[in-house]
Each structure stands twice: as structure tokens, then as C-alpha cells.
């Protein structure tokens, strides 16, 4: 089976591609230099040339705060770019897997979000990703995979940011937003499982099991790294960001990934090797 991956040079793509290859899939890696998803001709030519059975669409505009200022670019990549992928996939009868986000939700629900919950994004990034979901849902053979709080060895992420701050006098982290930290390797294995087992098309939530606040996530990172730091909780009001974030974006994951603490422990151990 031939799988074309968009955004293959991104944080998720770099873990996903080798995992798919290890499973025996023929993987075609693309990124903006080889296929700009906002250019319909580039998308059509690349897909026709490679003739994949499945496309895993990881490419995205992912800077949540900057998206508030660069709305046009965020929508061009996340909505229009995804529309291009969806249209060609539909035309050529290719299965498409779209990686989406917990930030399609407004965070007002008490308890875990399930795939049938109504999205209502409160920031530009979430709105642009939801527009992407709607385009993908026009395909016949599609999966929308919502994930959250991603970290991996090949990109900028919260775990690495926290570790880079270890020598600061004081580190303040918000304790009024809850979510599910997810290691890119765990997500990649779950995507691989969906394809291998030909699970039914539709929307899936794939994230670390359990949930936490950014503050407790940071606390765990330092604890597992044996680092003593002066970590202080603060509120979202105190730590202002350009983009609003949902207070609760925890998702029911149907045991698709192990506990976020266990995955984090392995991530940190591998980081030290
Ligand atoms: N990171 C998270 O916490 C998180 C949480 C939930 C969901 N997600 C979703 O998970 C997916 C993977 O995220 P990630 O963290 O791996 O993102 P990432 O590291 O930012 O990777 C995205 C990749 O897409 C590429 N790209 C950007 N514009 C493109 C275009 N016009 N054409 C082709 N490629 C383009 C980027 O290239 P450049 O680097 O050159 O721009 C980058 O290589 C995304 O769909 C994201 O929305 C992420």
C-alpha cells in the first residue's frame, strides 16, 4: 500500500513516516518544498505522479498565537490547502486522513469531548482547522483525527520549552487549562493501527490517556528529569497570550494511547540517550 504524507518534515511527520515504513508501507514524503498544499496544480501533479492509496495530511499552519495576526495565511494553509487535498483525493478515490486538533472545541464542556460533540472554536487556528475538517468530510473515504498538546523529538513543543527554562529564577505556568498531552510516536502508532486494521471511516480522538493542566504537565516534566526548579502556577488572565485557549479540551480517546505520564517518561528517557 502506498501512502503519501504531507508535512513530512514537521514534528509529527518525522516520527510518522519511519513508523509507517517499518509496517511495510511504501511512504512518499512531501512538504512545502516538494508539494505546496495551497497550490492546486502542485497538489494535483504530485498526487497523480505518485498515485497513492492513502494520503495522511499533516501539513498545517501550527502557530496558534501568530495565527491571530496572520489570519489570511492560517486559513490559506489550513482551510484552502486542505480543500485542495480533499478535492483531489475525492476525484481520484484516495483515502484521506486529516490531522486535526482539540482546539476545534470551546472548552466549556465538563468532562471529555467525544467525536460527536459540536465544535465551536475560540481562536483563529481552531477555526481554520475546523474549516479543514469540513472540506475533508466531503470525501467518501476519510478519517479526521483530532489530537492535542503534541510533543516530539523533531519540533518545537511545550516539553522542550520547559526544559530550556530550567535555569530561570522562576517559571510561571497556567493551571486553568486542561488537556491531554500526546507524544507524536504514540499518535503515529495509532494512525498506523487505523490503516492496518481498516477501521471504519469517521472522526477519531487520539491523545494521551488521562489529562492534566499545563502546570501539572510542567511539574511532571521536571520531576521525571530530576530537575529542581521554582515552578509557580498562574491563571490564563495573568499569563496573557494572543490566542484564547479552551479551558477544557480533554478528549475521550478509547484507549488509543497509553497514559500521558508513561509516554512522557519514555520520551524523556530517549531524549537523554
Ligand atoms: N503541535 C500540536 O500541539 C498539535 C496539536 C493538535 C493538532 N496538531 C496538528 O497535527 C499536525 C502536525 O503538527 P506538527 O506539530 O507536526 O506541525 P509542524 O511541525 O508545524 O509541521 C507542519 C509541516 O507542514 C509544513 N507546511 C506548512 N505550510 C505548508 C504548505 N503550504 N504546503 C506543504 N507543507 C506545509 C510545515 O513546513 P514549514 O515548517 O516550512 O512551515 C511543516 O513541515 C498539524 O495538522 C497540526 O494542526 C498539532
Strand order in the sheet with the most strands: 2-1-3-4-5-10
Percentage of residues in DSSP E strands: 15-25%
The biggest sheet, with number of strands, parallel, antiparallel or mixed sense and barrel status, is: 6 strands, parallel
* CATH topology group: Rossmann fold
Distance between the terminal alpha carbons, to the nearest Å?
Answer: 33 Å
Number of helices, counting only DSSP H or I runs of 4 residues or more: 8
Strand element count: 12
Instruction: Give the uncertain stretches in residue-range form.
Output: none
Tell me the name of the CATH class. Answer: Alpha Beta
Q: Provide the domain count.
A: 1
Shape: globular
Mean pLDDT: 97
Estimate the helix proportion, in percent.
25-40%
What is the H/E string? EHEHEHEHEEHEEEHEEHEH
Q: What Rg, in angstroms, do the CA atoms define? A: 18 Å
- List the ions, cofactors and other small molecules found in this model: NADP nicotinamide-adenine-dinucleotide phosphate
